[in-house]
Specification:
Helix 3 runs antiparallel to helix 4. Helix content is about 80%, strand content about 0%.
Amino acid sequence: MNFSQSAKSTTHSCPFRHDCNNLLTVILGNIAIAEKQASPSKEITDRLADARDATYKIIDLLKAI
């Protein structure tokens, strides 16, 4: 499940969440593209995984607002 699917019920109540939803969807999309195009270097895949994990942590924080 991506952020836009998980936040549908909360975006109507807060424009800030809606804006964050849009930005995080773009970030996760770019991470996914980078993962597909990246060389199989462990360092690169680890950094992309860290970026993805950090993005999902932001999603969890926004759900708590």
